[in-house]
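Input sequence (250 aa), recorded before submission:
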Amino acid sequence: MLNLIIFAVIGYVFYTVFKSYGKYENYSQKAFKNFSVSHGSLASSELGLFVALVAKVAKADGKVDALEAQLVGIMFDDISAVFPEPQKTKQILKDIFNEEKERSDNIEDVAHSLANSIRRNKTQQQQFMGFLIQLAFIDGECSSSEEEILSTIAEALEFDPDAYHKIFDQFEQMMKNITPKANIEDAYKTLGVSKNDDIKTVKKAYRQLVRQYHPDIIASQGKDEAYMKEATAKTQEINQAYEMIEASRK
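Predicted structure, token format:
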């Protein structure tokens, strides 16, 4: 249960850390309306380069686990939605991810390319670095291999070391403070299902609710702290309810 609660809670750490940096609205359908979608154009774009770095962090421990895959999947949905051809874009982003997760020899090169693209935008640097740290902690702890890759990326991005350690330490502290609580009756109510529904119905309800409330890198642009706090708390409740139901049926 702890892992799923972590998945919800750490998002709020990300946004409270960056509250002072202002709102960002760089990624929208309007901004990308004239973008020509292709593997080459996406791979060299700042969002494509970011997806490549996400792949490096996700595969740092040798495999992409279920929680990482879920977070990345939501990210694909939200990123692809701002481009002219969402389905085509999503498939190319998946291809970029799958290609880059198998490579460990070009981390600095990719990070340098992203740094050149967003060098003058400190908010984007904070946004991207925070998401990568969030991803590394998704399973409850940041391994030495994940930390090494994060440090390499942060250095290549010329990211402020003090800011990096502040974010990292807040995520680490959050992991220590999480105490899961729930009961099975409330779990069914939370998902809007009954104990007589099959697991397929339960899973569908869960995914719809997570998609509705999960705070993500694109969908959360321009939202204030109160919104993020409410969304994250609701996502925590949803995740906890689903895992309780799933465990009760084994």
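Checked by second reader. The CA atoms of residues 12 and 197 lie 32 Å apart.
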